[in-house]
Amino acid sequence: MGTDTLTLAVDYLRLSDEEANGGESSSIVNQRKLIKSYCEQNNITLVREFVDDGWSGGNFQRPGFQAMLRLLEKGQVNMVITKDLSRLGRDMREASYYAEQYFPERGIRFLTVSDNFDTERDNVLAPFQFAMNEVYLRDGSRKVKDVLRNKRENGEYCACPPYGYRRDQHDRTRLAPDEMTAPVVQRIFARAARGDSTRQIALDLTADGILPPLKYRVLYTGNFKEGSAAKASDQWNYTTVKRILKNPVYLGHTLLGKSKKVSFKSKVKVAVPKENWAVTRDTHPPLVSQMDYERAQKNLGRGTKTYLEFDKIRKSIFSGVAVCGKCGHALCSCGTVYKGEREKYWYLSCNHQRKDIADPCQGVRIRYSDLVELVRQDLNALLSLEPGEIDELVQRVLKKSGSADAIKEQAMQREKAETRLATIDRIIGKLYTDNAEGKLDDDRLDRMVVGLQQEAQGLKAMLRSVEQDAKAAQTENNFQRFFNMVKQYTHLETLDRDTLLTFVDRIEVGPKELPPGVEKTTHRNQPYRQNVRIFYKFIGELAPDPAIEFPRGIKGAEGKVLL
Questions:
Q1: Measured between alpha carbons, how far is 207 from 12 in angstroms, rounded to an integer?
Q2: DSSP string, 400-447
Q3: Distance from the CA of 553 to the CA of which of 268, 299, 501, 527 falls in 20 to 30 A?
Q4: Which Gene3D superfamilies does the UniProt entry name for this protein (predicted)?
């Protein structure tokens, strides 16, 4: 190979675990010898070597390969050599991109020693070579699936051992109780069987300093990257407890195949129908008895709607409607029974008061009867409006809504802005591509991107303004729809669930605001203020000031609508 240009090359060596088991022909040592001999015969200077030992050819995030790409971006070498195309990679699309586009666009010659691929020549058979290399990848994926399926059918555990178990020292395909975590699992099931909630179990485990499953794996069993390990929390979550309680593996049964990859090229997994799961019974020692497991499953359903069928449970009409004004979580029904007075001590409260968050929602609590009466009187104020008062209310809204021409102009502005934003996104993507390919320098890239981003921010601000105007323009129709429903009612003596859902979209309850020097309410007649925001269907919030004075019999609620 004669040339007047100094040829500085890097060689890339790769071997997967599966290929290593097949013999020495493709070993790292043999690849190195073959490439070194070729370079000596053709006066090529090898300046550096990159190796990925034990990495699949379908994964192009290999550390050695990525390190080589970073060196190539610096322009210090002009050649890359591998033993054959399969060493570069076995994914047909990715391997073809690097061999036939990435390297040539950067002035880098890529060649292989064994199958005579060279970017300075016409490689007529290259598409077939890339395809055959991918066939090997597909066949390997099929063989792995066959092995896993055979293991599942034989009851062998071919996944990460669940919390509470470890691999048996004498048979690595079987599970054995983990001396450190098995007692924790048994404690969880015992507590759940007694009726303790998953939230309380999680709080108690955290308070006792017991490591949750992910943190335990990070410290004792799993191999995690530093960044991923740092995300492992020391706090137990009630969903983690619930997941343990629902897992039949603790009865001694193996359950696998609940998800699968969408393709051998993808890491994305999809759920498998339950009837297709691989279940093998009595494959390892159980940690809990069938009785405790069934009791725990029964108690898991105590917070569901089906449990509300029992007469002794207070049935709130505000389920899914009343939420915490501080955190947005639904308010839960709570309270005590004193001398048989159930209604008197019935509250709606935010239960998002975990000890592991910095700002729990304390004070977000309202007496159930107070909220019922507040909403009932507010609705009656709307129902009592005369036609003239309704028209006056709607006319005030109409003054803020534009004409038909204005609405058309808003639609045109929105369409132009959205089209331009999509164009800006494509331009910025193209600029970064040109920069990566060396067609655009960094300084010019920065200037152009900053200008486009500033234009995009202005367009987004204009879209928000147009959207607000459009919402105002729809207010007339929304009011008409709302008051058409109002006309079907005259006066509400009681407030039921159906009526509430007909008119109200949601209710936000804020924390109590106590008088200065008062830390908590100690008796029923002690005054306080509390924000209660009622958002009606179609028209939203009507009250200019949602702060309500308690206790006062909820008087004056009618006045909120007319202000």
A1: 52
A2: TS--HHHHHHHHHHHHHHHHHHHHHHHHHHHHHHHHHTTSS-HHHHHH
A3: 501
A4: Putative Large Serine Recombinase, Chain B, Domain 2, Resolvase, N-terminal catalytic domain
Residue 233's domain is classified under what CATH number?
3.90.1750
**Residues 195, 83 share a domain:** no
Residue 110 structural domain: 8-139
What digits encode the pLDDT tens for the residues 166-219?
Answer: 888 887 778 889 998 999 999 999 998 888 888 889 999 998 888 888 888 877
Same domain, 29 and 94: yes
How long a stretch of residues is the chain? 563
Does 192 fall in a domain?
Answer: yes
Q: Report d(CA 445, CA 432) in Å as an integer.
A: 7
For range 347-363, the mean pLDDT = 64
Give a yes or no: residue 60 inside a domain: yes
Please identify which residue in the block is written with the tokens 């450190």: 180
Q: Which residues contact 280 (CB under 8 A, 6 or more apart)?
A: 152, 153, 154, 155, 253, 254
Looking at the structure, do residues 298 and 407 belong to the same domain, yes or no? no
Domain count, the chain: 3
Identify the domain boundary among 444, 473, 502. 473
Is pTM, for the whole model, over 0.70? no
Listing DSSP states for 341-377 in one string gives BTTTTEEEE-----TTSSS--TT-EEEHHHHHHHHHH
Can you say whether the dihedral through the CA atoms of 341, 346, 351, 354 is positive or negative? negative
Same domain (yes/no): 181, 268: yes
Q: How far is CA 64 from CA 24, 56, 118, 432, 449, in A?
A: 21, 12, 22, 24, 32
What digits encode the pLDDT tens for the residues 231-277? 677 889 888 999 999 888 899 887 776 666 655 555 666 777 777 77
Asked, for residue 363, whether it belongs to a domain, the answer is no
Task: State the Cα–Cα distance between residues 548 and 349, nearest whole angstrom.
Answer: 17
Q: Where are the beta strands (DSSP E) in 86-194?
A: 109-112, 165-167, 175-177
Pair type for strands 45-53 and 8-15: parallel
Residue type, 405: D
Burial of residue 229 (number of CB atoms within 10 Å: 0-12, 13-18, 19+): middle
Element (DSSP H or E) covering residue 188:
helix 182-194
Last residue of a domain, one of 85, 105, 139: 139
Using DSSP, state whether 66 is helix, strand or coil: helix
